[in-house]
Amino acid sequence: MKVIKLYAPCDGEINDITAMDDEVFSSKSLGDGFCITPSSNTFYPVFKSGTIPMIFETKHAIYFQNEDINLLMHIGIDTVKLNGQGFSTHKEVGEKFKLTDKIVDVDLKLLKNKNISSQTALVIEEDILKKYQLTKTLTSGVVKAGTLIGQLTLEADDVSLKKSALKAKIINQAASDFLKQVGGPENFSDYRNCLTRLRFTIIDKNLVDSEAISQNRLVKGLVWNGSELQIVIGSEVRKVKNAIDELMNHGSKTITNQGKTKIVWYRRLLQFVVAVVVPCLPLMFYTGLSSGVAALFQQLGWAKPGWEGLGDLDPFSAFLIINSRVGFMLLGVFFGYTTAKYFNANPILALLICLTLSSRLLFGVEWPIIANVFGERNISWKGYENSVLIYIIAVIGYAYLNRWVEKWMPDSVSNIFTPIVSVGVTISVAFFVVGPFVTLFEELLAKGVLVSLKIPFGIGPLIVAFLLQPLVLTGAHLALSTIVMQSMINTGEASIYFVCVGLAAFGQGGAVLGAAIRSKDLAFKRNAYGIFPIATFFGITEPALYAITLPKGKPFVSACTAAGIGGFIAGLLNLEMNNYTGNGVFSALGFNSIANIWIYLALGFGVVGLALVFTLLTYRERPDEFKSVVYLNKHLKNQVKENNQVTLDALNEISLTIQAKQEFINQIENNIILGQKNQEKLNKVNKTQTSSKTSITSEKNQILLTTLENQALSIKNDLDLQLKELTTCQNQWIGEINNLIDSLEFKNEKVKTKVVKKYENKIKSLNLNYGV
């Protein structure tokens, strides 16, 4: 057994911790210890030696550590509101100390003048991995700094509890229990942690099981402050908060073998892409429109083009360029931020990583690693502002590295050293390793595209035009376009590359229009119609990609296919662009020949039409019932034939069973569309009334408002009933079809189960998801 002696940190009057005027300390919620009322301004350590793992930013609370025992010295009650005023520290976090070292000076007169108690709590924190016995040699009387006031006798460690896996299990279980015991995620509007407490802003106190929370082994006490529930935990609180974050952000995505369907990898990837990109769509809308406005002003002669020499331009022209470029130049930084949110990493530290890799200090600076790759460019250490992949890779790496470091970093120093290790390593690896590899990948990709363009008979441009929008997803198109542009400037040769770029944008525009026409969701329609001109006329495809075509799948393929066909025709016509003059329809000005301008525009809008037709032919918001039945019957006939059974009448009966419900489903869809339109009218009337400067509403408007509200409520109630009826009908249909399939008397049960499952999935896919 080891003995650790405790000493008075200052001159003053010593008492038991129960003498503290703060109930959190006096109730021993944070642990046992002492109360000392200081009479001297200088405070010394409580241990004979050790380290300082933490100093609160307001300097009123300091942790001492010895033999993995943490002792909190909390100077004064409510001194946190002084924000450090009157406190002067002599030691830094991580420094070692001995008994005679000064730790902090406190202006006791200032505390007295501000009517703030100077009572100081000395609290030995109970770590779940340690057991100890506290012996108090002094609990009353006047003491001098350095006087022995007690000792800690450490008992044998509980080996099983020392295992980090068990510790993590305890914390994860506590996080899960807390979420249930506070009434579930729907019963709190916010949660956070401070130095020692987990805080929930509770909606309904009656749903909180305070007794169950108090019995948790990590909990040292509960405090209610209005609607805020404070769970006193101690230094483990940050890990509990992180575990709750994990459950809140990814709990619904957790895949188990008990009744949950495993998500295939490409759908998981699509979920990630949507989660990262969708929050950035407003940024892309703004920057895309700004690019279009800048290009229009430049073509009309109202502003001057140029990027390299902004100082040579007038302020208005320079502003237009900056306003239209910065959003896309730093798009990777914003993607890094949303990636951090997706992986539940610290978004501020993720921004630090991304902004360091794109720092303005690195503009125009590079340190070559491989000179003259393919005879033209260098692979270098440099700023990576035009990339996207590097930021996403760096932040994902940081998220996983940070979790790993947290597992073994001691709790007492984790807040300080975990970010130092995880951020420092991430930035270093990203700058020195990931960055050059991503650059090399982009260079190889660019070289491959340039070589592909030379494949004869239009095949090369077909491939490039088809693949350009998938390249946008990686961000490699930025480097690729830069390389091609530099080659055109240096050699003076025309290139078909930017023709393919324009056709790819036209394809996305046509697919967006097709998806808008097919959709029965009014909100989706409005969004798509707004994006259509951005992609078609201004050539900015990111909003179309991430908001419309990629999430829907088939419109994306339709757009790429139409662009590929356009590229094939352009290749046959040898349609090459002489200069790069912008995106969208403005790119047509890059041809020296008037005839080529008209050919390019005709071909571009032809691609719009092709993508529109392909999307209309292939895209549905839900499966077509008739085609589904035809497919299933064909499949089932093959199964029947394999089992030497001829019962085609039963198959026809199955067809009628499903098709007979088509009218019912269409009726629900029509009612939903009516409800959406009615809701829009209601919103407009409400908006008009809200913005009205008069307090009296006309009788006509009031009657209209009441009528619309009643109609909306009636339709919503009808829809609720019809959707419930649809679910009931689906279950009945499945039962009917199961009976019919049973009559086929399959010899192979596995084949029978497979057939039944296919029918069930098709029927369930008829569910409607349009909200009113």
List keywords for this structure.
4-stranded antiparallel beta sheet; Gyrase A, domain 2; 8-stranded antiparallel beta sheet; disordered C terminus; alpha+beta; 772 residues; Glucose Permease (Domain IIA); 20 strands
Question: In words, what does this structure look like?
Answer:
- The chain is α+β, with helices and mostly antiparallel strands and 772 residues long.
- Among the domains are: 2-158, Glucose Permease (Domain IIA), CATH 2.70.70.10; 163-253, Gyrase A, domain 2; 453-621; 625-687 and 711-764.
- 55% of the residues lie in helices and 14% in strands.
- The longest helix is centred in the C-terminal third of the chain and has 44 residues, at 699-742.
Set out the fold topology.
Blueprint: E1 2-7, E2 12-16, H1 23-26, E3 31-38, E4 42-43, E5 49-55, E6 61-66, E7 69-75, E8 87-89, E9 96-98, E10 104-106, H2 108-113, E11 120-125, E12 132-136, E13 140-143, E14 148-154, H3 159-162, H4 164-181, E15 188-193, E16 197-202, H5 210-214, E17 221-225, E18 228-232, H6 237-250, H7 265-277, H8 281-299, H9 315-329, H10 331-342, H11 347-357, E19 366-373, E20 377-382, H12 389-408, H13 411-452, H14 459-474, H15 476-491, H16 497-518, H17 522-536, H18 542-552, H19 554-572, H20 594-618, H21 625-642, H22 648-659, H23 662-691, H24 699-742, H25 749-764
Antiparallel strand pairs: 1-14, 2-3, 2-13, 3-11, 4-10, 5-6, 5-9, 6-7, 7-11, 8-10, 12-14, 15-16, 16-18, 17-18, 19-20
Helix pairs in contact: 4-6, 7-10, 7-18, 8-9, 8-18, 10-11, 10-12, 11-12, 11-13, 12-13, 13-15, 14-16, 14-19, 16-17, 16-18, 16-19, 16-20, 17-18, 18-19, 19-20, 21-22, 21-25, 22-24, 23-24, 24-25
Subcellular location: Cell membrane
GO cellular component, one term: plasma membrane
Domain PTS EIIC type-1: 271-633
